[in-house]
Amino acid sequence: MKDELYPSRLELDKSSYEKNLSFLRDYVGHDVVFSSVIKGNAYGHGIRDFVPMAEDCGVRHFSVFSSDEARQACRARTCDSHVMIMGMISNGALGWAIENDVSFFVFELDRLKAAINEAKRIQKPARIHLHLETGMNRLGLEEDEFEDTVRIIKENREYLELDGICTHYAGAESVGNYVRIQEQIENFKEYSSWFKEQGIDPKYRHSACSASALNYPETIMDMVRIGIAQYGFWPNRETYMNFVKKHPDVNAKHKDPLERVLAWKSEIMSTKKVPAGEFVGYGNTYLTSRDQQIASVPIGYAHGFGRNLTNVGIVLVNGERAPVAGLVNMNLLTIDITDIPDVEKGDEVVIIGKQGDQEMTVASFSEMRNFMNYEVLVQIPSGLPREIIE
Ligand SMILES: *Cc1c(COP(=O)(O)O)cnc(C)c1O
C-alpha cells in the first residue's frame, strides 16, 4: 500500500530477492546455512520490512552488527529465526542476548568471562561464536589466548553453547589483497583444527562474506554471512568480472544473475515555466539558458540526496533522465523537464531504480557522489516507508 503521508518511498522487490537467494543458495550449496546480514538497517532496505520478506523467502538466520540491531531484528521477525551479533555487544547487554537466544561473537577473553558470568546468573547457556584473529588485525582472539580460551570453555561447559568458530577477511573483493587473504584462510583452517583437537568443535565454521564466498569458494564452509550480494549488488566490479570469467554458464546468459531489490521513488510536486535568463532556487548556481520548464520534487539532503548533487544529479521522469537544476535544498530539489513532454504534478520520479528503459543504479548515484554502494545504501533514510512489491 502506498503511504500518502510521505514525500517519497522505498520499494522492495520480493521476486528479485527470491532470484538472488536462489542464485546464491545454488552457488554456496543448499546444506550451507545462509545467514542474511542486515546490519546498517539491512543496508538501507529497512530491518522492519526486510526481515519478514526474507523469512517469507525461507531465510531463518540473520546477522547484525550490534545489540540494538539485534533487538530490532527480534521485533521484526515473524517466526523462530535466529539472530547473531557479529560485533558490538556491551557486557551489560549480554544478559538480554542470552535470555533471547541471540548468539554473539566472542573476540576477547573478557567477553567470554562476562558471558559465562551472565549465563550462570540467568541459569541458561550463552550461545557464542569464537571469533579468531587471522590477520585482519581488527577484532578476534589472538593465538596466545587460545589455550586460556580452551581452558575457560572446558571449565564452564554447561554455561556455553558453541554455535560457531569464525573469522572475517580483510578485503576479499580485491585481488590486491590476494596474499593476505590466502594467509588468513590458511590460519583459520589451522586454528580451527587445533581447537577441534582440543575437543572444542563448534557447530558451524564460518568465514565468508559476499566477496570471499564469490572469489574464494573454499571460505564457504558450514555457514555464509551474506550482505551486499543478497540485495542484488556485487561487492565491486572486480568481483563480478572475476566471477563471470570463472563461470562461463553465467557469462553465456549475458545477464547479471543478481537483481537490485530496492527502488526509491517520489513524485512531481509542482511544475512552472521559467523564462530565459532567470536564476532558479536559492542563490545563483543555476541560470536558465532558454525558456524552461522546472519541476520540484520533495526530496532533499534531509533524505540523503546530497547537496553535492546540485546541478549534477539525475532522476527519472516519464522514462527520461531529468537533471537537477539548482541547489539541492533540505527537503526539496528542482529538476529541468523542458525536453520531457507532458510532465504533470503527481507523476512518478525515480531516484534509484527503473522507469521505462532507463535505470538509475545505486552505482551511478554513488559515482556521482564518489561513494561505494554500501555507503550510499546505508544513508537511505530509515524513516521513509518501505513497500514490498510482490
Ligand atoms: C558486513 C559483514 C559481512 C557481510 O559483508 P558483505 O560484503 O555485505 O557480504 C559478513 N561478516 C561480517 C563480520 C561483516 O561485518
CATH fold-level name of the largest domain: TIM Barrel
Listed once per kind, the bound small molecules are: pyridoxal-5'-phosphate
Number of helices: 13
CATH superfamily grouping of the largest domain:
Alanine racemase
**If you average the pLDDT, what whole number results?**
94
* Distance between the first and last residues' Cα: 11 Å
Helix % is: 25-40%
Sketch the major β-sheet: 8 strands, parallel, barrel
Describe the strand arrangement of the main beta sheet, using strand numbers: 2-3-4-5-6-7-8-9
Q: Structural class of the helix and strand makeup? A: alpha/beta
Q: How much of the sequence is in beta strands?
A: 15-25%
What is the CATH architecture annotation of the largest domain? Alpha-Beta Barrel
Report the count of strand segments: 18
Count of discrete domains: 2
CATH class of the largest domain: Alpha Beta
Low-confidence regions: none
Question: Which descriptor suits the 3D outline?
Answer: elongated
User: What would you report as the Rg, rounded to the nearest angstrom?
Assistant: 24 Å
Family: Belongs to the alanine racemase family.
Enzyme class: isomerase
Pathway: Amino-acid biosynthesis; D-alanine biosynthesis; D-alanine from L-alanine: step 1/1
GO molecular function, one term: alanine racemase activity
